UniProtKB/TrEMBL annotation:
Protein name: UspA domain protein
Residues in UspA domain copies: 4-143
Family: Belongs to the universal stress protein A family.
Organism from which the protein derives: Shewanella pealeana (strain ATCC 700345 / ANG-SQ1)
Superkingdom of source: Bacteria
PANTHER family associated with the record: SENSOR PROTEIN KDPD-RELATED, STRESS RESPONSE PROTEIN NHAX
CDD domains: USP-like
Length: 143
């Protein structure tokens, strides 16, 4: 862990920004690099009920452009002398985060938890929980 980079997934939320601060602190402590990953999930819907004013390709491109803009903004706001890499993936958030951690041989994952409880917890997939349960490296879940 102490010689391998730290992976920090982001959805560009305030909670993810809070987790990023922990990731930066850990990376500085261990003198390792930081890798920031954002996963674009496909929008879900039933074809018969979707009303789209754009084609699926246009929607996907818009999501990609938005993610790239948010990532650029995030990287320019980082005030750190760390080695920072960023990547944008497509698919299931938990699956892609785990693949990125394995593929980049990350020493630790620092991930935000949105702290949902009750019915909201059951209605929304818990990415942080899935990553923490299945990751091969240590995971720090930040609330």
């Amino acid at each position: 862990m102490r010689s391998r980079q730290i992976l920090c997934p982001t959805d560009f939320s305030d909670t993810a920004s809070h987790a990023l601060k922990y990731a930066i602190e850990m990376a500085n402590l261990y003198h390792v690099g930081l890798r920031i990953v954002h996963v674009i999930e496909q929008p879900m819907g039933v074809d018969n009920y979707q009303i789209l004013t754009v084609t699926p390709e246009e929607l996907a491109q818009s999501m990609e452009d938005s993610a790239a803009d948010n990532m650029k903004k995030l990287l320019t706001e980082l005030k750190s002398e760390l080695s920072v890499e960023s990547v944008i993936r497509h698919g299931s958030a938990a699956e892609q985060i785990l693949k990125e951690a394995e593929g980049s041989e990350s020493g630790m994952i620092v991930i935000a938890s949105h702290g949902r409880t009750g019915l909201s917890h059951f209605l929304h997939s818990n990415v942080a929980e899935a990553v923490a349960n299945r990751a091969q490296c240590p995971v720090l879940v930040v609330k």
